[in-house]
UniProtKB/TrEMBL annotation:
Domain HTH lacI-type: 2-56
Keywords: DNA-binding, Repressor, Transcription, Transcription regulation
Protein name: LacI family DNA-binding transcriptional regulator
CDD domains: HTH_LacI, PBP1_LacI_sugar_binding-like
A GO molecular-function descriptor: DNA binding
PROSITE patterns: HTH_LACI_1, HTH_LACI_2
Entry keyword Coiled coil: no
SMART domains, per database record: HTH_LACI
Keyword DNA-binding assigned: yes
Length: 313
């Protein structure tokens, strides 16, 4: 297998010049760069990515930190981030941590070039320490001074609550998300405001983990409210509700409307059911793109991006 020395010899340049040319350095004359690139192609030379990154003082590794793997909302975010990382020549690794201690950030920072921090539950100060340790992008949370991208689900939840009230649902339940969740605070505030404006009675049941079991367990409390519509924090909670309601003889959506996502409506054949349509892959791709720009010096920290979230049905 040819190495960098072989490429340099064929191109008639030093090994250092060949390295700079293949790395796109502006210090190499254009005609020399063309000669080196042609030599590499002719020899079938494949650069050692790891060695190249180490020479630049990098590992080429990005950590995406999620608080749990129980919430399926994070799966497409990881997939989108990984696809964009591959395009940028970076390796993505997944770390599961609620980011509620500084030690975890410090250990991870020594092994990666940057972070994608998804829905962290720690304090603003603690989460910001990740951004101070290495370039970082927050996903589904906003902190002043840190680059972030969020799906604007709060606005979508508010719109959904207003729509349900306009359709005649005067008793609505919001099943909240995990304790300490920034998004849950935003959604709760939006739902409360929309219900108050519409004159609907709102019951908030939470905090709850974003799991199927949590949906099953909260069902008796939901039924007891006498509500005709439920807005769950997460799809997994909604699925638990759907199962438990069915075992109680409650017909959805005739007796009780439970909002969910489009894929669930299609899979279960639910009609007249509203859906919050979050593009998780786009969320992950956008976050990874923002981080790649930071690493390349094209962006300063602090940019905040909000992606629109449509309400369907």
């Amino acid at each position: 297998m040819p190495d960098l020395s072989d490429v340099a010899a064929v191109a008639g340049v030093s090994k250092a010049t060949a390295s700079r040319a293949l790395n796109g350095s502006g210090l190499v004359a254009p005609e020399t760069a063309v000669r080196v690139t042609a030599a590499a192609a002719r020899l079938g030379y494949v650069p050692n990515r790891a060695a190249r990154e180490l020479a630049r003082g990098r590992t080429g590794i990005i950590a995406i930190v999620v608080p749990t793997l129980d919430n399926t909302f994070f799966t497409p975010i990881i997939a989108g981030a990984q696809a964009r990382a591959e395009e940028a020549g970076l390796q993505l690794t997944v770390a599961v941590h609620a980011l509620d201690s500084a030690s975890a950030v410090e250990r991870l920072a020594r092994q990666v070039d940057g972070f994608l921090v998804v829905a962290p539950r720690g304090s603003d100060t603690l989460v910001a320490s990740a951004g101070a340790a290495k370039p970082a992008v927050l996903v589904d949370r906003e902190i002043d001074g840190m680059t972030s991208v969020v799906a604007d689900t709060a606005s979508a939840f508010g719109t959904l609550t207003s729509r349900l009230a306009a359709e005649g649902h005067q008793r609505i339940v919001y099943v909240g998300g995990p304790e300490g969740s920034w998004q849950d605070r935003q959604r709760t505030a939006a739902v409360r405001d929309a219900a108050r404006t519409a004159g609907a009675e709102l019951t908030v049941l939470g905090p709850r983990p974003a799991t199927f079991v949590a949906g099953v367990e909260v069902t008796p409390a939901v039924v007891e409210t006498g509500a005709t519509a439920v807005v769950p924090y997460a799809t997994s909670i909604g699925l638990g509700l759907l199962l438990a309601l069915g075992t109680r003889g409650v017909e959805v959506p005739r007796d009780l409307v439970v909002s969910t996502e489009p894929t669930v409506i299609e899979a279960l054949g639910l009609e007249h059911t509203p859906a919050i349509d979050v593009d998780g892959e786009e969320l992950g791709r956008t976050a990874m793109d923002l981080l790649a720009r930071q690493l390349d010096g094209q962006d300063e920290p602090g940019r905040q991006v909000r992606l629109p979230v449509p309400v369907r049905g």
